[in-house]
Every structure is written in C-alpha cells, then in structure tokens.
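tool_call: predict_structure(chain=1)
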Amino acid sequence: MRCMMRGNYGQTVCGKTYSPSEVETVIQITFGTTMPPSRENELLLMLVPLYVVMLSTLLLFSCGAAKSAQEITLKVPDHFAGVVKISPCDRNAGPPPIAVDTQGMGSTSECPQGGRQVSLIVVRADQTYRISPEHVKIRRTGDGLPVSIEASLPVR
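tool_result:
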C-alpha cells in the first residue's frame, strides 16, 4: 500500500518530509489501481437508478408472490341466518358447493394450509355474496391443521 497525505512544513508522513509547496490529496491505493474520488462519486450516482429499479422489482415480486385467499362456496338454506361451521379436510365430503344444513353445519374436502386465509362465497336462494377473510375464523390444532371454518351469516 502506498500512502500519500497532505503534509505541513517539516512534518514527516509515511517516511517523507513535506515542504510548504508539496500538497497532495489523501489517496490510499490498494491492489494496484483506484479511481480518483470524483470518478467514484460519478459511478455511484450512475448506479443509483439501477439500485432503485432493482429494489422496486424486488418489492413488486414479493407482493405478487403473496397468496390470495382460498375461496370456498357454500349453499345455505333460503332463510338461514347464524353461524356456519364447516369441517375441512373431509375425504367423504361431496363436490362444491358445500351444502350447509339448517344447523349451519357442512363439510368440505378443501384443506386450507397454515397462513392461508379463506373467503366464503355464499349462495342463498337467488343471492350470492362474499364473506371476506377478515370475517372468517379458521380454528386449527397446535400443529396448524384446520379443524373448523366458521363465519356468521347475517339475515338477508
């Protein structure tokens, strides 16, 4: 490594005594070559847009990778209002839509994975509406297996 410093008269730096006429810029040169400080700044400024684009792309991909809520369709009796309780992961359940009885019970072969939300599509008489994931409760065992899916259906 070669050392160059701005020195004062009579001051010895890196084994050299400087006179008032000798003024040098502080540059440490390692591995043979380096760019002057102004070129380094120019290079960094040129790379800033690239960093912004890369960061933006990463954020867009991470948002796009988020899984959407799983949709489960329910067919409820015409005048049903109250809490529906769906038993998930039932191998013997019929095909969709899930038939909910007058007590609000039903079963499905759908098995929502841990961390995935569920939205319910409710079909009642000639009406179809959605219950958002914030209003759907998924009860799970300690190891994350779903035990029941519950939601409250209003009077319509």
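agent: Confidence is low (pLDDT under 50) at residues 22-32. Proceeding to next step.
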